[in-house]
Amino acid sequence: MRLGLLASLTVACGTQEGSPTVSAEFDSRHNDEQPALSGDGRFLAFVSNRNGNRGILLYDLKQRQLVDLPRLNRGDAIAESPSLSYTGRYIVYVTSASGLSINC
After folding, report:
1. pLDDT score, position 93
2. What pLDDT, in 10s, does the model give residues 12-44?
């Protein structure tokens, strides 16, 4: 599914000078799918098995690094179909977990 993720980045970010580019970190043997780009184009959320378990990861295209998402992915629950707010501050996703509380 790597090609789908890379194609989404190319379309969303363009190829003009100064646009974010895809780092080697995205060229991996892992399954990366269900990409979602924040409205301002800075953050990319996607589902991946990079951490040994399938979960949602967040990549900062400006800083070119993954962003830590503590408590989002649980080994006993499915997390998928991420969607980001305009600035990438909020992630909405589908989960099989129960008993979740929202702490802002």
Report:
1. 92
2. 444 444 544 545 566 678 888 999 999 999 999
Name the burial class of residue 59, with classes exposed (0-12), middle (13-18) and buried (19+) by CB atoms within 10 angstroms of its CB: buried
pLDDT at 27: 65
Alpha-carbon span 75 to 29, nearest angstrom: 21
The neighbour count for residue 72, using CB atoms within 10 Å, is 16
Residue 27 buriedness (CB in 10 A; 0-12 / 13-18 / 19+): exposed
3-class secondary structure, 19: coil
The 10 Å CB-count burial string (b at 16+, else e) for 29-53 is eeebebbbbbeebbbbbbbbebeee
Distance CA(63)–CA(82), nearest Å, equals 20
pTM: 0.70
pLDDT for the residue numbered 6: 41
The helix (H) or strand (E) run that includes residue 9 is: helix 2-13
